[in-house]
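Students often ask why we bother encoding 3D structure as a string. The short answer is that it lets us treat folding as translation between two languages. Here is a chain of 415 residues written in the first language.
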Amino acid sequence: MPDTILTRIRRAWNIFRFGDNYDLQDIGSGYGYRQDRLLRMVYNSEGSMITSIYNRIGIDVAAVGIQHVRTDENGKYLDVIDSGLNNCLTTEANIDQSGRAFIQDVVMSLCDEGSIAIVPVDTTLNPAVTGSYDILTMRVAKILQWYPEHVQVDLYNQATGMYQPITLPKTMVAIVENPLYSVMNEPNSTLRRLIEKINLLDVIDKQSGSGKLDLLIQLPYVLKTEKRIQQAENRREMIEEQLRGSQYGIAYVDATEKITQLNRPAENNLMAQIEYLTSMLWSQLGLTKEVFDGTADETAMINYWSRTIEPFLSAITDAMSRVFLTKTGRTQGQKIMAVRDPFRLVPASLLAEMADKFTRNEIVSSNEFRQVLGMKPSKDPRADELRNKNLNEAATEEESKPKPNEEGSTDNAKS
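And here it is in the second language, the structure alphabet:
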């Protein structure tokens, strides 16, 4: 018998209202970084070209559907489970984010932070009491402190509209670690070195465009006395006033004075280092220039999928399956699975050939392939059959029986 509305309201649980206050309990020593790592520092990559890499990876990972599914004894996909968790992953994760925007937020935060927590905010039952709860809303949280069996996260509180630190058991939140941590988040990784070089280049460009002239004025007398130094200061201020008041920045000097300009472009190998680090980073992440501008061939996209996208999907799905699904649910075949559309990157010129091979070999039906093309299913019942359409239908038993002639012999017995 399904629960009534009153029963569901009575059992509903919110992490901010009814959650155990672990901040007031003795849960062990707290640290600002993970204890299983020697050093972990969070760098800010805003304002650099690195954000475009985060965004590209986040969009491509979010484009792959993540669903709460049921599998068979071999781990093969059977069907989708209609649950609140599946609704969060596919339709609405919270009041501010759709399912796809939530996954993109997870990936981009993962690239920037290295480790993040996926926190179930609203659930049907208290997760600290039972594991048989369903998730209604979830959010991405930054991990502030690591404890032996708990984590302190900076979580957005919808009721107050502010981020609020809250301490939760590790068994309640899905902690996801960046699979490319050593490349993107280590203090001396390729990505961090590239960010430092880009920031240094930005500083040099800012100094070059600051409007300073950097001039040396050689006066026709020796500056050894206080009076001569004061005279030189007056002369410098006079030239500055001429340049400031002139429409085109023109000033005059005495014939005996000599001016030397210092802001000539300095020769350095900073840009060469940035280009080298960029190419190294792209190779370590499985990225190419063609992937970003959309001209990559099939081989490059397969390499990008297997080396970059798939590790992120596995890290997210494994973390959620481990925490949000009970051991009983996993033994019953429940799983958080990334369901990839294999026809997403196939050009239109190959779809007709693939449709013929898939239907002829009885892998998919005609209606299933029509959905790939974005077409409505056909109402013809034969369109749902797994049958080779290039062959005629088998004759019925009555039609296949030989018909006797008037002499009592069969037609095909004559020689």
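Translate back mentally: The chain has a mean pLDDT of 80. Keep this in mind for the problem set.
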